[in-house]
Known about the structure:
Blueprint: E1 2-3, E2 8-14, E3 24-27, E4 30-37, E5 41-52, E6 56-59, E7 68-81, E8 84-98, E9 106-110, E10 115-120, E11 124-132, E12 137-140, E13 142-146, E14 148-150, E15 156-158, E16 163-168, E17 176-186, E18 192-204, E19 207-214, E20 226-228, E21 235-238, E22 249-256
Parallel strand pairs: 8-22
Antiparallel strand pairs: 1-7, 2-7, 3-5, 4-5, 4-21, 5-17, 6-9, 7-8, 9-18, 10-16, 10-18, 11-12, 11-17, 13-16, 14-15, 18-19, 18-20
Amino acid sequence: xxxxxxxxxxxxxxxxxxxxxxxxxxxxxxxxxxxxxxxxxxxxxxxxxxxxxxxxxxxxxxxxxxxxxxxxxxxxxxxxxxxxxxxxxxxxxxxxxxxxxxxxxxxxxxxxxxxxxxxxxxxxxxxxxxxxxxxxxxxxxxxxxxxxxxxxxxxxxxxxxxxxxxxxxxxxxxxxxxxxxxxxxxxxxxxxxxxxxxxxxxxxxxxxxxxxxxxxxxxxxxxxxxxxxxxxxxxxxxxxxxxxxxxxxxxxxxxxxxxx
Length: 260
């Protein structure tokens, strides 16, 4: 079965007491990668991104209120099977909810949170830009190098040995279609491994952290790696399916931390 186009759509649906929301990002399955040369060498990666920003924010109005939000990812795959071209749709929904909160607790939830990219430790000068349909370029904020990132309940997502995190923000992007470029330098031209985690951004009470959504992990060892072999000619790497086989639906629930 040959993998064709994949789009990932992050959608938000609020629960009782909150407005209904629809938001997120749609990604093309192919990541274009190219070696630009130089000493050290420069690697450039490009992907297509459709953005529909939406955030839930407010303050609880009653004691014991639970804030709920669903972040969903839809993978739409064009595939070839013995009967001809077909479409495989995979939907993955992560139900996020808080514990009962005191009245007056402020919250802000964004299912299109930053993208965490795990790169080799010798990757440097990491930059990200987004170019819209009109050709206007926007520099995206990048935090790097990081060895760990805060999660809920005081936990931390830690980079694996020999790796580092680069956190790419996308909250500044307005609705529209973009080409997102990630560029960085390596000490030498070589094959390397890379992992990507899409997150929701959570601010609740005195807590502020990211919640991994795709994949839903707290340990990078459980994240599938892409093996990248850049060359002077542009090549493509395909993003894997949301889950194996032809299963169409999956879901999970996570509780959000809200420190008083």
